Write a sequence for this structure.
């Protein structure tokens, strides 16, 4: 029972995550990823700063210990010199005191030398850690810059994808049915072409019908009667038909042969 509930819980979690990823805005998710990367880089810089600060503190402690070691060394030497001078002057009490002071300085000198060795080891380790932290910060900064550049590229691709989706929607609206109240261009074109083809067909059918031929015959008969009546009117007026009236116009060039024989005899005496 517990295993079944556990599987169901994991399934529901995966389903909710899948639905969320489908509905989530990629632009917002991209901003979240970049923000998270920037926060990680900031935390890494803070950790690196702490490591470098520890390395700097170790160096300062080592330098201070070196100064103290030098001072203890000078004090020990001075105590030895003063004890020797007191012993040479016959003052054994002062010689004993200076010898005790020299031994105390020598113990401090030994303790400081041990501390310096430990500080040197710590300084070496902290220096290596600081170098690694700097390298990690530099590498992460480079990766962050690449992510920022990739962000701009992805945003550009996202805008192009949105534009392509809008273009696909617009093109599909021209070829597909988008709703009962909104006809597509293809539907309107098909409707107009159907009406035009039907009108042309009806016109051709009417042109081939008997009634049309009868109208043509009646029109020809009317035209013939009109011509006959026009001829009758011309005869009464003494004008004649249109055909004879046009013949004299063709006979007008007859005077030209009379001029040509007169010119020929004039040329014969010259021979």
């Amino acid at each position: 029972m517990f295993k079944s509930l556990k599987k169901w819980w994991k399934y529901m979690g995966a389903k909710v995550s899948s639905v969320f990823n489908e509905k989530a805005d990629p632009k917002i998710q991209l901003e979240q990823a970049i923000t998270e990367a920037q926060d990680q880089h900031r935390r890494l810089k803070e950790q690196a700063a702490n490591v470098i600060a520890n390395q700097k503190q170790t160096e300062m402690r080592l330098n201070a210990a070196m100064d103290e070691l030098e001072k203890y060394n000078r004090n020990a030497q001075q105590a030895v010199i003063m004890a020797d001078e007191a012993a040479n002057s016959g003052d054994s009490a002062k010689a004993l005191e200076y010898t005790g002071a020299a031994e105390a300085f020598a113990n401090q000198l030994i303790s400081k030398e041990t501390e310096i060795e430990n500080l040197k080891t710590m300084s070496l380790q902290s220096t290596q850690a600081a170098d690694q932290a700097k390298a990690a910060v530099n590498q992460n900064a480079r990766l962050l810059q690449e992510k920022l550049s990739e962000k701009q590229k992805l945003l550009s691709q996202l805008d192009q994808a949105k534009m392509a989706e809008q273009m696909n929607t617009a093109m599909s609206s021209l070829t597909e049915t988008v709703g009962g109240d909104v006809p597509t261009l293809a539907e309107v074109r098909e409707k107009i072409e159907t009406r035009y083809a039907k009108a042309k067909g009806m016109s051709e059918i009417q042109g081939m019908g008997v009634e049309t031929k009868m109208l043509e015959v009646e029109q020809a008969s009317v035209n013939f009667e009109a011509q006959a009546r026009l001829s009758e009117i011309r005869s009464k007026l003494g004008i004649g038909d249109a055909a004879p009236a046009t013949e004299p116009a063709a006979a007008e060039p007859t005077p030209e042969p009379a001029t040509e024989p007169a010119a020929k005899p004039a040329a014969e005496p010259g021979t």
Remarks:
- The two ends are 150 Å apart (CA to CA).
